[in-house]
């Protein structure tokens, strides 16, 4: 037992290495892509409409060149550091199961979460760093924070260069809003594509979209930033002046007025810098996604006994990390569809003993996944049916990452005004899939309600004071409108359904192939259980789609880096389930009448055989 | 072995000789053809009863009187209707109202735009066509714009078919059900192709003017007019008109193609997301065809190039240096052979893919060059009425799901006295690929075949469904014992004779016929 435990440990660490090395490769590529991106940025930032020749030839003095070379190298090293850090954050924060907030207050809970706060803070700082590099690269009037100026009485002094300050603050704001929007749009969620392409082609195909997304997102962020700076610009300016002992040059217009902000050159530089910042970060995210989701081929049977933990049946049944399980299920779906030789290995018998160990393990895990989902759907349906939609309900979801278990809960009173509670609590171990616990009357509720009231008043006072701050928007939204995000509970139920889709595809393809390829009849013995699991799930899914909001499609969002495919996973699951059952019925046809099953299932199956579903 | 039309038995004259080969609609010379007298799905859509869709709003301008609007309103309208070029045109045309520099600069920009677009158009001439013309040009239907039946699709698993008509409606027929639903949708215009989703009872993909519709027609529903809520609209900027649509045989993916879009779109229909597959060259994608085993996909372009995609990692093989563009293509049931035809040529080419699909780098072991397998150049055949000219360019190909019959729709040429007709070949895939002449399928006098498809659910052989120019849809059955699945006790198939040479040989051919009524 000690030996096997040892093997498991090394095995899991070696499996983790797969993801780790993929992440390292993606970060290395994003660092390699930094020089061309920076070069492009330098060219664009020097662009001037009225002096095209000067722009092309770059007429500058020798002194400037030597000075800027040193500082350019330094700022480039800084940029590399930022990209490395962003890559590290990607690796640390990614998840294959999206975290879905069921109400706006839960979303707020996510935002105020320390982990997310840390993420935002670091991105804010990195935004400042990138903006500083940009300012140095642009040079000219953006070069430094202070400049010597003459005041009337007291001789030469250092004055504040507000252009530089605006650039830095814009960087901070864009960095923060990147982090915040990343949370709201689930940018940490990694989805697997149905169409597998080689990494280069995939990257090439997505690159224009990323460029557009970063340019558009930079525009929006800039709009918000300028509005904020217009109202609150004097606060950071005064603070910087006080701390660094800089003077405000009264001969220059301050920028927090309409005429100051309508400086086209400044706007262009801000926009191009924000685009550059977002583009480098988006590229890092994109490369990480492409590298991590690349199909991985697990051996079906071990060549040596020591490698047993690395092969498909072991990884599929393993619990941690979730992404490996997903990769293994993806591999199962692909091998069952495309690879006759590997299918043959699944159907084969173990050498001493003659047991279909591989098939049994694969089958058991897939069926348990399906029955899990069925159970979840049935309990959710019962909950809704017994309570109605307005009664109080507690919903607990694991956050991204699975193991780090912060649990959010909310309660909804229809009669009184809406009272929400956020109860961050650490559970020792949280299962990797979302679970719904009906009717948990948490003892903390009453005690927390009062504290929440104070939170509410705090936020509303914040709303009145701080103007267009995203959270304030959200809070005022919350105060004024309903708190429930109607589709979210349905989305949350199917959050990890990609695994179920692969399990269904893998099972149905294997069963269909077994009709002609399974020499020992290992599949036949399990056919009744597979069919009944699928039919039960089919029934549960049908019932779920009769609930309000379950079958409403989310509006198509314009492209952003956030992946919204989790919003439609339930439709994909429904389609795959039907196709899978049809695949089995189309292959076996009338032979299915010989399979043992309940009369209700037989009736349903007959519908499938007659193509009436 | 080269097969040529000269080896074919000549088509019979208009009035059939023996009732055995005669049905009220068609004549054929293939002794193995037998018509069921009353097929439940013999349909008739007279051309006169169908009203083509009225032209879009832009052309209704002429019906209204000119009305004075401010320049701003007109410019906004032009921008909305015709985009940048419309706006520039409007400004350039109203030189009295705009400052001189604006008028001049807009004229300059307009001239530059026209020059660029004409340059682009000279590279890819098809881009100068209007959307309707483009659909007509690249559709698999002969004379699409004037055809009463614009599309036809058999359900892959049950006796059910969908018919797209000239008035942009789609009707679904099922002999077991008394209702035949009619599908209409605001966006369902100029239907170029339609296909049922495999391994599904209800989903039908329709290639429309500027989008892709996926209808969910509940087979148990009694409604005759499903609401447009039953249709999923899949659209993508720049992807219009859609001329071809193909479901993967496993039912998981849908591929759509447009001659204006260089990218082929691979849709995950349930999620409504698509992955564009861009490749340089070709200028668009006109026709796509998925191999029955799902491992490969043929994509024809408007220029002399087509691609064969491998569907595991979605890499493609280019097949350039054709004389014209690839007009049509079809796969053998095992996915090992691709037959295709080229516009301007009268031959059928074959590509053989020998590797087992699914190995890494699936394109290795692919063919190096296409071989000519059949020559369909013009020939005159002796008929009791005198010589008849047959042959010419090929509009489309269809291979029956068992791989025993190949139907070739010949374009014909009314001026040269060559009617469009369907030539049918017998085919054999294993152990060696063979094509043998079988016969012609002709319609009533004065009618031409426009569209054909084999019925995938015909038990006793192959059944070719033909849509005729007069709006009739009929079914020609070829009864045979499948060579692949020999059934004991019915005599079996005699060895196929290989006819080489003399045209008169067809008389002596032992055509394996097994008539099952």
TrEMBL record, chain A:
Pfam families: Ndc1_Nup (PF09531)
Keyword terms: Membrane, mRNA transport, Nuclear pore complex, Nucleus, Protein transport, Translocation, Transmembrane, Transmembrane helix, Transport
Location(s) in or outside the cell: Nucleus membrane; Nucleus, Nuclear pore complex
Any one Gene Ontology molecular-function term assigned to this protein's record: protein-macromolecule adaptor activity
InterPro entries documented for this protein: Nucleoporin_prot_Ndc1/Nup
Transmembrane segments: 20-44, 65-87, 93-112, 124-144, 164-184, 209-232, 270-292
Main location: nucleus
Membrane topology: Multi-pass membrane protein
Gene Ontology CC terms: nuclear membrane; nuclear pore transmembrane ring
GO biological process annotation, one example: mRNA transport
The keyword Membrane is annotated on this UniProt entry: yes
Role, per record: Component of the nuclear pore complex (NPC), which plays a key role in de novo assembly and insertion of NPC in the nuclear envelope. Required for NPC and nuclear envelope assembly, possibly by forming a link between the nuclear envelope membrane and soluble nucleoporins, thereby anchoring the NPC in the membrane.
Family: Belongs to the NDC1 family.
Name used for this protein in its record: Nucleoporin NDC1
Organism: Esox lucius (Northern pike)
Gene this protein is translated from: NDC1
TrEMBL record, chain B:
Any one GO BP annotation for this protein: nucleocytoplasmic transport
Aladin seven-bladed propeller domain residues: 130-478
SMART domains: WD40 (SM00320)
Gene3D superfamilies: YVTN repeat-like/Quinoprotein amine dehydrogenase
A GO CC term assigned to this protein in UniProt: nuclear pore
SUPFAM superfamilies referenced in this protein's UniProt entry, alphabetically: WD40 repeat-like
InterPro entries recorded: Aladin, Beta-prop_Aladin, WD40/YVTN_repeat-like_dom_sf, WD40_repeat_dom_sf, WD40_rpt
Protein's name in the database: Aladin seven-bladed propeller domain-containing protein
Annotated source species: Esox lucius (Northern pike)
């Amino acid at each position: 037992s000690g030996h096997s435990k040892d093997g498991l440990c090394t095995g899991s660490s070696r499996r983790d290495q797969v993801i780790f090395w993929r992440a390292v490769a993606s970060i290395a590529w994003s660092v390699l892509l930094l020089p061309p991106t920076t070069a492009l940025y330098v060219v664009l930032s020097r662009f001037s409409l009225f002096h095209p020749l000067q722009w092309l030839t770059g007429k500058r003095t020798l002194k400037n060149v030597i000075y800027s070379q040193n500082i350019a190298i330094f700022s480039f090293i800084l940029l590399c550091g930022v990209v490395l850090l962003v890559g590290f954050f990607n690796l640390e924060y990614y998840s294959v199961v999206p975290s879905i907030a069921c109400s706006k207050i839960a979303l707020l809970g996510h935002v105020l979460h320390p982990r997310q706060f840390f993420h935002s803070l670091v991105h804010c700082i990195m935004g400042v760093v990138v903006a500083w590099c940009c300012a140095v690269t642009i040079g000219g009037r953006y070069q430094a924070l202070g400049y010597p100026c003459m005041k009337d009485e007291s001789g030469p002094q250092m004055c504040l260069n507000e252009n530089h300050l605006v650039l830095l603050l814009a960087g901070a704001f864009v960095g923060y809003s990147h982090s915040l929007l990343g949370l709201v749009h689930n940018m940490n969620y990694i989805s697997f594509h149905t169409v597998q392409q080689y990494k280069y082609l995939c990257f090439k195909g997505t690159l224009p979209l990323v460029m557009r997304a970063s340019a558009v997102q930079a525009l929006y962020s800039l709009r918000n930033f300028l509005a904020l700076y217009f109202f609150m610009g004097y606060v950071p300016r005064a603070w910087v002046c006080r701390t660094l002992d800089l003077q405000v040059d009264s001969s220059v217009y301050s920028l927090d007025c309409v005429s100051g902000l309508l400086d086209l050159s400044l706007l262009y530089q801000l926009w191009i810098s924000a685009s550059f910042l977002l583009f480098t970060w988006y590229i890092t995210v994109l490369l990480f996604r492409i590298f991590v989701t690349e199909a991985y081929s697990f051996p079906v049977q071990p060549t040596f006994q020591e490698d047993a933990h690395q092969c498909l049946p072991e990884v599929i049944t393993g619990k941690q990390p979730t992404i490996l399980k997903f990769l293994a299920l993806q591999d199962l779906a692909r091998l069952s569809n495309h690879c006759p030789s590997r299918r043959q290995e699944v159907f084969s018998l173990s050498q001493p003993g003659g047991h279909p160990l591989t098939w049994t393990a694969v089958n058991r895990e897939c069926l348990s996944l399906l029955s899990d989902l069925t159970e979840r759907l049935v309990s959710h349906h019962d909950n809704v049916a017994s309570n109605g939609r307005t009664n109080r309900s507690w919903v607990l979801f694991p956050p991204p990452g699975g193991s780090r278990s912060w649990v959010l809960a909310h309660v909804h009173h229809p009669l009184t005004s809406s009272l929400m509670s956020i109860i961050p609590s650490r559970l020792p171990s949280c299962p990797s899939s979302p679970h719904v616990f009906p009717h948990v009357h948490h003892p903390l509720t009453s005690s927390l309600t009062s504290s929440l009231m104070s939170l509410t008043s705090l936020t509303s006072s914040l709303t009145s004071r701080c103007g267009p701050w995203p959270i304030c928007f959200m809070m005022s939204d919350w105060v004024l409108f309903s708190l429930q995000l109607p589709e979210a509970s349905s989305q949350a139920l199917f959050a990890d359904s990609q695994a179920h889709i692969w399990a269904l595809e893998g099972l149905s393809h294997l069963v269909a192939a077994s009709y002609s390829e399974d020499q020992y009849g290992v599949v036949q013995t399990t056919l009744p259980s597979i069919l009944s699991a699928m039919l039960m799930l089919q029934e549960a899914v049908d019932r779920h789609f009769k609930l309000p909001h379950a079958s409403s499609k989310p509006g198509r969002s314009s492209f952003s880096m956030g992946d919204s495919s989790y919003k439609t996973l339930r439709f994909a699951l429904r389609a795959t389930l039907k196709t899978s059952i049809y695949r089995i019925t189309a292959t076996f046809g009338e032979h299915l009448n010989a399979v043992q099953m309940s009369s209700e299932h037989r009736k349903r199956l007959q519908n499938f055989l007659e193509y009436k579903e | 072995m080269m097969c040529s039309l000269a080896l074919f038995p000549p088509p019979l004259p208009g009035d059939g000789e023996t009732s055995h080969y005669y049905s009220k609609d068609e004549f054929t010379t293939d002794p193995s053809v037998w018509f069921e007298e009353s097929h439940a799905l013999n349909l008739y859509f007279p051309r006169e009863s169908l009203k083509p869709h009225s032209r879009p709003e832009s052309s209704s301008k002429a019906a209204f009187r000119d009305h004075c609007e401010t320049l701003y309103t007109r410019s906004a309208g032009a921008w909305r209707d015709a985009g940048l070029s419309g706006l520039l045109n409007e400004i350039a045309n109203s030189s009295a109202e705009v400052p001189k520099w604006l008028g001049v600069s807009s004229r300059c920009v307009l001239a530059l735009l026209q020059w660029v677009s004409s340059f682009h158009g000279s590279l890819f001439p098809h881009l100068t066509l209007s959307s309707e013309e483009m659909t007509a040009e690249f559709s698999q239907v002969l004379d699409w714009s004037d055809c009463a039946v614009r599309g036809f699709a058999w359900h892959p698993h049950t006796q059910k078919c969908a018919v797209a008509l000239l008035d942009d409606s789609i009707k679904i027929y099922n002999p077991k059900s008394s209702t035949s639903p009619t599908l209409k949708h605001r966006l369902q215009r100029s239907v170029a192709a339609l296909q049922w989703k495999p391994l599904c009872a209800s989903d039908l993909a329709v290639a429309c003017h500027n989008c892709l519709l996926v209808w969910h027609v509940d087979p148990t529903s009694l409604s005759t007019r499903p609401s447009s809520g039953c249709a999923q609209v899949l659209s993508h900027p720049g992807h219009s008109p859609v001329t071809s649509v193909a479901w993967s045989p496993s039912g998981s993916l849908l591929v759509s193609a447009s001659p204006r879009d260089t990218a082929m779109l691979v849709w995950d229909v349930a999620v409504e997301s698509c992955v564009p597959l861009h490749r340089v060259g070709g200028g668009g994608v006109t026709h796509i065809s998925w191999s029955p085993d799902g491992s490969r996909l043929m994509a024809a372009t408007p220029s002399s190039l087509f691609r064969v995609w491998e569907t595991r990692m979605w890499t493609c093989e280019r097949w350039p240096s054709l004389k014209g563009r690839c007009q049509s293509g079809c796969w053998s049931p095992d996915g090992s052979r691709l037959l295709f035809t080229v516009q301007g040529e009268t031959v059928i080419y074959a590509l053989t893919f020998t590797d087992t699909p699914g190995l890494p780098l699936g394109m290795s072991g692919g063919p190096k060059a296409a071989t000519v397998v059949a020559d369909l150049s013009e020939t005159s055949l002796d008929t009791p009425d005198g010589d008849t000219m047959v042959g010419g360019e090929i509009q489309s190909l269809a291979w029956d799901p068992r791989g025993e019959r190949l139907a070739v729709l010949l374009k014909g040429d009314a001026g040269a006295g060559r009617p469009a007709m369907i030539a049918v070949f017998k085919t054999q895939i294993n152990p060696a690929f063979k094509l043998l002449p079988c016969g012609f399928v002709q319609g009533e006098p004065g009618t031409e075949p426009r569209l054909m498809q084999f019925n995938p659910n015909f038990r006793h052989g192959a059944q070719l469904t033909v849509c005729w120019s007069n709006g009739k849809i009929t079914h020609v059955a070829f009864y045979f014992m499948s060579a692949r699945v020999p059934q004991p006790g019915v005599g079996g198939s005699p060895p196929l004779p290989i006819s080489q040479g003399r045209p008169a040989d067809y008389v002596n051919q032992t055509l394996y016929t097994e008539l099952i009524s």
